[in-house]
Protein 1
Amino acid sequence: MFKTLLEDYRSCFARDPAARNPIEVLVCYSGLHAIVGYRLSHWLWTHHLKLIARLFSQCIRWMTGIEIHPGAKIGSGFFIDHGMGVVIGETTEIGHNVTLYQGVTLGGVSWKKEKRHPTLEDEVVVGGGAMVLGPIVVGHHSRIGAGSVLVKDVPPHSTVVGVPGRVVHRRTEDEEEGVLRHDLLPDPEMAAIESLVHRVAALEERIKKNE
Ligand SMILES: CC(C)(COP(=O)(O)OP(=O)(O)OC[C@H]1O[C@@H](n2cnc3c(N)ncnc32)[C@H](O)[C@@H]1OP(=O)(O)O)[C@@H](O)C(=O)NCCC(=O)NCCS
């Protein structure tokens, strides 16, 4: 658990340019406080101390304004920026290096005791105030725009915005990595030559018809 907490702590510096020094982050980042509280309450939850886990999680909610059910499963490098108003339901599953902003709901749409909350794969970012509802899967490296309401699965590397959320852009893995694909760069000279070849062929055709 210590290694996971260390990665959560490091993610504050990696994903918030406003984070200046370790003491400031430890004392002032309520997102970090909520995650540390969640890691402890999840441990209690999985060791058959469910009521104590819920009570502890409620205390963290009073302190931070962030409600994470102890039954949720969350990978390392989790970062909640600002945090107030975040709600994460019991059957939510979150991969590694996921980022949430304030007011995000990862909520259920069913009252049945079954998987009813979303699954967020690795490296997903969910913008402020967005709602991700139901047992849907948000593919890895996707970005959910601030204020969106998402109710359907999203493929990896997507940008989703609006109500209901729609995919407006899909990045390639190379774009994600910032890799420049030289084999896909435009070649203006070849394009000009190809255009001339086509025009010559068309002119030859017309001359043949006139002869
Ligand atoms: C969605 C987001 C992640 C940008 O992702 P991106 O892949 O870089 O997408 P782009 O900026 O290229 O935008 C794609 C299109 O969606 C639109 N768009 C972006 N965010 C939007 C939003 N939240 N709601 C509606 N439309 C949005 C853009 O205007 C653009 O439209 P266009 O193609 O007609 O020009 C970003 O806009 C966002 O909402 N981030 C959340 C940040 C946040 O909550 N910060 C809180 C800090 S306190």
Protein 2
Amino acid sequence: MPRDYYEVLGVGRDADEGQIKKSFRRLARELHPDQNPDNPEAEDRFKELAEAYEVLSDRDRRRLYDSYGHDGLRGGGYSPNFDGGSFSDLFSAFFGGGGFDAAFGRGRAAGADVAVGVDIDLEEAAEGASVEVSFDAPVRCHTCNGNGATPGTPIVTCERCGGQGRLQAISRTPFGQVARTIACDVCDGAGRVPEEPCTTCRGAGLVQETQTLSVDIPAGIEDGQRIRLSGRGGINSPSGPPGDLYLTVRIRPDERFVRDGDHLITVLDVPFALAALGATLSVDTLDGEHDVEIVPGTQSGEVITLREKGMPRLRGGRRGDLRVVVNPVTPRKLDRKQRELLERFSESLHDGNDAAEESMLAKLRRLVSRA
Ligand SMILES: [Zn+2]
Ligand SMILES: [Zn+2]
């Protein structure tokens, strides 16, 4: 039993003609053969969609279906059959000769989008940077200036289409013969062809070229963020508009800082005696060295927050913080003198040395949740 047609089209039972058409076009766009090469599922789904549209867009068939369902349609003589012709033919039968591009307003002339990546340091991400990016993109041929002819040779009327740029193609589809207009395969729709094609671009008017561009990266950018440079991509036709350049920014891992949104986290090793005695130590920040106060009795995993020493915000506003996680370092080796001192120190310890009552959970939080 076929699925419910309203369900297939994703519309309510009271949908009007316009809604049905709109929904059909939207779903068909996703299933277009060019978007789904070698995907038999897309073809099957398109057939199902086409059948639903065939019925619901026709007043009589829809009335029949509403009253009697699929059986009513069969009884009324409607029998969908989309098994002849190719998927492309079938699609064209619905959307006419221009196919996908014409149907959805995406002309051949639309530009060629280009994606490129760049790696920067954390400092550059913090301060903003100007980077050079290189990428290959199609540009207008310099030899023929895009007209595809060897300089000084004429451009003549295309014999195949008689200068129309278009050809009539008859294809057999499940709905009978459909005449459609297609772009001329010789002149590619231009109606004119060079008598002697340009040897640089073989008549295409386009060549692939490496381009270098300087791009400003804003301060505060995050790893993996994409910058779109409108109109800085390539072209798909010599007279067409350029596409966009998409620059993905990757930030190299930094040895000193881990980033947490706008905040940075670093670890400060403190000799265990100084953690007990207290000290002023120096810590690396993005703006250079900065003094931090280690209060006497500082515990492992305690955090000192340096306000606004983190990353700037992309859209402005207060900078993030630098969180300094204190790591008291236990000496791994002791000489005899030190061992004696520590033994004497250890013997001197009493309950009063650990005055603060801290629950096991509080200790776990301090030690585990910071990383
Ligand atoms: Zn050329
Ligand atoms: Zn032609």
